[in-house]
Fold Phosphatase PAP2 family protein.
Amino acid sequence: MLERLLRLDYKLFFHINNVWQHPVLDAIIPWLREPYLWAPLYLFLLLFVTINYGWKGFWWMAFFLITFGLADQSSLFIKDAVGRIRPCRDPLMQHFVRVLVVYCPGSGSFTSSHAANHFALGTFCFFTFRHISKWFASLFFVWAALICYAQVYVGVHYPLDVIGGGLLGIFLGGMSAGFFQRRIRLEPELAT
């Protein structure tokens, strides 16, 4: 069973990294995984919660950062425990891998920290913003999924790595959002 799952993982990786590629995507997709590209989103969220929710916005920012930290450290712990080699470093795979980034990290491959972090933040944002619009809040999952796809496309993770990271992130983001929603909850400040 595990062998069949890994074979499917390699096959899907090969399709995403080699078959389903295009020069335009080669130019765009590596940028999706860059934190600087998403800085305007983070700035917008910071301003949005501060302006609309007052002191609760500051608590939201604290939980946002805590959620990120939990996901990142949990993923690093799992990487060290599992020790899966990244496709761009695997001696059996590296000749078949198109690496579209300058640097192939030396850390383990399972779970993807990008996937864990972004799905944790996406889940946290979904549950804390869905009172505004479920459609708007759902876009955070699209954002996280694009970043995960980019990790495989550029050759630094296998699909199972990002799926594992995504599930870890959804779990941690859901726990963090659940606690936040029970204790604080974003509601507009009432003018006095």
In short: The CA atoms of residues 13 and 19 lie 9 Å apart. The chain has a mean pLDDT of 93.
